[in-house]
Amino acid sequence: MKIAMLARNPSLYSHKRLEEAAQSRGHEIDVINTLQCYMNIASRRPEVYYNGEKLPRYDAVIPRIGASITFYGMAVLRQFEMMGVFPLNESVGIGRSRDKLRSMQLLARDGIGLPVTTFAYDPKQTDEVLKLAGGSPLVIKLLEGTQGIGVVLADTDRSAKSVIEAFRGANVNILVQEFIKEAGGTDIRALVVGGKVVAAMQRTGAEGDFRSNLHRGGSAKSIKISPEERSTALRSAKAMGLNVCGVDMLRANHGPVVMEVNSSPGLEGVEKATGIDIAGQIIGFLEARARPNKTKTKGKG
């Protein structure tokens, strides 16, 4: 196969592993800087250009689109989709997962366990929002935040109200969620590839930090998840329309609750914690599924 990988930094562990896995299986892979692509929006002849040349025909595209360039990255990916190139994850699924509010609505629609989550526009409704979420302690999240940035734990109703009013005063959209105290600062990330959970790890936050993100000083270890947690991860991936994703869950008293579905999960933490070749499984999925014009949405949506 001839594979394109949309990635701005080819030296990242995840991108190097995917490149190595593809080459070791006899495939040709080009790492393409997403922001240096430009497009010809021509009727019935969609084209993508890179470094002054029209890109050749690819069998598959691996989108590794950073959150900060979601809008342009999805535009480039849609162009590949309209050209009939098979995407590892489709633009529609990535768009759903990047919109925290939309993703929560879709998960709730499918009956997937979630922390109590509230959303409002008017700061005057803060008291009602706090009440709906069950009162402090509460987690307040920026809708556009990633990797633990823009996530605040408010210990009291007064501090929660201050944070909410500050964010809304800056015209920033936020979600307010119940704090799952029994999770104890740990979460589970389940890696889904092609409708199967291929690996799972438990992440624990750094001392004094309720966030468990590894690059914020957290640690990880391999873990065996329950059938209910496995089902929750698979249903979450399906709700988003993602072939490959990381599903972040907390173990609440009433069962697993989903915090986020990540459409470009990092591979370093989970591969090192579990010893499983995730990159190879991703390339294997493309080998089995990549066919011309098999994108469900063909760039629509």
List keywords for this structure.
301 residues, alpha+beta, Rossmann fold, D-amino Acid Aminotransferase, Chain A, domain 1, Dna Ligase, domain 1, 3 domains, 5-stranded antiparallel sheet, 4-stranded parallel sheet, 9 helices, 16 strands, 32% helix, globular
Outline the structure in words.
The protein is an alpha+beta fold and 301 residues long. It contains nine helices and 16 strands. A hairpin with an 8-residue loop joins β9 and β10 (151-154). The longest helix is centred in the C-terminal third of the chain and has 14 residues, at 227-240. The model has no long low-confidence stretch (mean pLDDT 89).
Tell me briefly what this model is.
Helix content is 32%, strand content 27%. It is an alpha+beta fold and 301 residues long.
Terminal CA distance: 27 Å
CATH superfamily membership of the largest domain, which one? ATP-grasp fold, B domain
Category by helix and strand content: alpha+beta
Number of strands: 16
Write down the overall mean pLDDT: 89
* Helix-strand topology string: EHEEEEEHEHHEHEEHEEEEHEEHH
Question: Secondary-structure blueprint of this entry?
Answer:
Elements lengths: L1 E5 L6 H12 L3 E5 L4 E4 L6 E4 L2 E2 L5 E4 L6 H13 L3 E2 L3 H8 L1 H10 L7 E2 L7 H7 L5 E5 L8 E4 L2 H13 L4 E5 L7 E8 L2 E9 L14 E4 L4 H14 L3 E9 L2 E8 L5 H7 L3 H12 L12
Parallel strand pairs: 1-2, 1-6, 6-7
Antiparallel strand pairs: 3-4, 4-5, 8-11, 9-10, 9-11, 12-13, 12-15, 13-14, 15-16
Helix pairs in contact: 1-9, 2-3
